[in-house]
Specification:
The protein has about 220 residues and is α+β, with helices and mostly antiparallel strands. The chain contains seven helices and 13 strands.
Length: about 220
């Protein structure tokens, strides 16, 4: 069973009971889970694959602001308050989730006081992640942000062997690092010249993870 971060405060019996109510959803590569502005009434727990969370910028562009993988979740605000989705989610690869409705969580909250703690901890985790990203954006050079975001992606996509293939385009990495594509290209080209990675169409192949970790410090 996947170890879901969001359900860590529940005991085994509560976790099993909640997951038994979940609906398994399967998505093809590039399939949309939901669009920005869609009604929000479910949270998704990722069991397989990876998903990109994207938003529309004030300039009308589409930016990737986060990538989530197995054990993570998205759409958690839907279980707290009804409202439209604040972003579009798309599958990066063949992926699966377990979706839980607001009613499922409402029933759990009636039966267990730990349910409130679960939702609060999910929100606290997200606030901490956003705070860390803000500190990076304000105080770290763009080059270091690129390396750190790439390292996070490598850890998410890493299997048992190297190279680690990260199936993102440079523009996506630029969005995640809060910089421009020319900066990302320059940084990655320097890493390619030093044997850290290889650039390919639609992906980045990291062949020396230890060297990447040193650059991301």
């Amino acid at each position: 069973m996947t170890d879901f971060q969001m359900l860590s405060v529940l005991d085994d019996e509560q976790r099993r009971a909640l997951l038994q109510q979940a609906r398994r959803r399967r998505f093809k590569r590039n399939e949309i889970v939901f669009h920005d502005g869609d009604p929000g009434d479910t949270v998704h727990l990722v069991t397989k694959g990876h998903f990109a969370i994207r938003i529309a910028t004030p300039l009308g562009d589409v930016a990737t602001v986060r990538v989530v993988g197995p054990g993570e979740h998205f759409g958690e605000l839907a279980v707290l308050s009804p409202g439209p989705r604040a972003g579009t989610v798309v599958a990066y690869d063949a992926a699966e989730t377990l979706s839980l409705s607001r009613d499922d969580f409402a029933e759990l909250r009636r039966r267990s006081p730990r349910a409130e703690e679960m939702v609060v901890m999910a929100l606290v985790t997200e606030v901490r992640r956003l705070a860390a990203a803000l500190v990076d954006a304000l105080y770290l050079p763009a080059d270091r942000r690129v390396w750190r975001r790439l390292l996070e992606l490598v850890r998410m996509f890493q299997g048992s062997d190297e190279p680690v293939i990260v199936p993102l385009i440079q523009e996506d990495l630029a969005h995640l690092a809060g910089t421009g594509r020319p900066t990302v290209n320059r940084v990655l080209r320097s890493g390619e010249a030093d044997g850290v990675l290889v650039l390919a169409r639609g992906r980045i192949e990291v062949i020396d993870v230890a060297a990447l970790e040193r650059r991301a410090r």
